[in-house]
């Protein structure tokens, strides 16, 4: 169940327990906070999280993020990250297969553009949020946003992954892309 659907599910049955799969950094938790945080209380203050609501996560590094959002860590369960390889295209064996650069926040697009201007050859497919435009420079091929069910096949076809983050100790960045790449057996080039 995505986070955004939890409020309706909890309201539909007062005895129902709801388990959420957090694929990426609590997307939708703001809707839960609006529904359950009492007026005048901040989300990071404990006590508002519904007792019947649990989160499954593959990212123990997100523990601080969950705590800051007001989610009691006793309601978070950690499980190994898994990707159903049979549902994806065969891994790339073509030496001319594209490189994939993907991500959402804390990405250093300007450094990637400068590096691409100096390279020739293999295309670098860039998946990025539309509000963070990436220039078509050198071998960069910006494609804009894509959904998870589109991202995984693209990643499976890529030779390797680039995660180009800028350093900011306040942000957790690149974890989902790195873990997914490694789960698919893809090498990762990461910069911070």
Features:
192 residues, alpha/beta, 3-stranded parallel beta sheet, single chain
Write up what this structure looks like:
The protein has helices at 6-12, 29-36, 63-68, 109-118, 148-157, 175-183; strands spanning 18-22, 53-57, 76-78, 99-102, 124-127, 140-144, 161-164, 188-191. It has 192 residues and is α/β, with parallel strands linked by helices. It has a five-stranded parallel sheet with strand order 6-5-4-7-8, with helices on both faces. Strands 1-2-3 form a three-stranded parallel sheet, with helices on one face. It is elongated. It starts with 5 loop residues before the first helix and ends with a strand.
SSE topology:
Layout lengths: L5 H7 L5 E5 L6 H8 L16 E5 L5 H6 L7 E3 L20 E4 L6 H10 L5 E4 L12 E5 L3 H10 L3 E4 L10 H9 L4 E4 L1
Parallel strand pairs: 1-2, 2-3, 4-5, 4-7, 5-6, 7-8
In short:
The protein is of the alpha/beta class and 192 residues long. It has six helices and eight strands, in the order H-E-H-E-H-E-E-H-E-E-H-E-H-E.
Strand order of the largest sheet: 6-5-4-7-8
Tell me, briefly, the overall form. elongated
Strand content: 15-25%
User: If helices are DSSP runs of H or I spanning 4 or more residues, what is the number of helices?
Assistant: 6
| Number of E-type strands | 8
Provide the residue-averaged pLDDT: 81
Topology as H/E string?
Answer: HEHEHEEHEEHEHE
**Between the first and last Cα atoms, what is the distance in angstroms?**
33 Å
Poorly predicted runs = none
Helix content estimate: 25-40%
- Describe the sheet with the most strands: 5 strands, parallel
């Amino acid at each position: 169940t995505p986070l955004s659907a939890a409020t309706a599910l909890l309201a539909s049955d007062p005895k129902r327990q709801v388990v959420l799969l957090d694929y990426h950094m609590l997307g939708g938790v703001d809707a839960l906070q609006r529904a359950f945080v009492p007026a005048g209380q901040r989300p990071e203050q404990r006590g508002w999280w519904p007792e019947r609501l649990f989160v499954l996560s593959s990212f123990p590094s997100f523990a601080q993020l969950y705590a800051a959002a007001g989610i009691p860590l006793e309601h978070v369960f950690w499980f190994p990250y898994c990707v159903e390889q049979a549902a994806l295209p065969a891994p790339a064996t073509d030496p001319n297969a594209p490189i994939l650069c993907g991500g959402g926040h804390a990405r250093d697009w300007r450094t990637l553009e400068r590096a691409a201007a100096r390279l020739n050859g293999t295309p670098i497919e860039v998946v990025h949020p539309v509000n963070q435009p990436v220039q078509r420079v050198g071998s960069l091929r910006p494609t804009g946003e894509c959904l998870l069910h589109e991202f995984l096949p693209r990643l499976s076809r890529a030779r390797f992954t680039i995660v180009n983050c800028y350093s900011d100790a306040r942000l957790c960045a690149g974890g989902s892309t790195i873990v997914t790449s490694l789960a698919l057996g893809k090498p990762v080039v990461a910069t911070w």
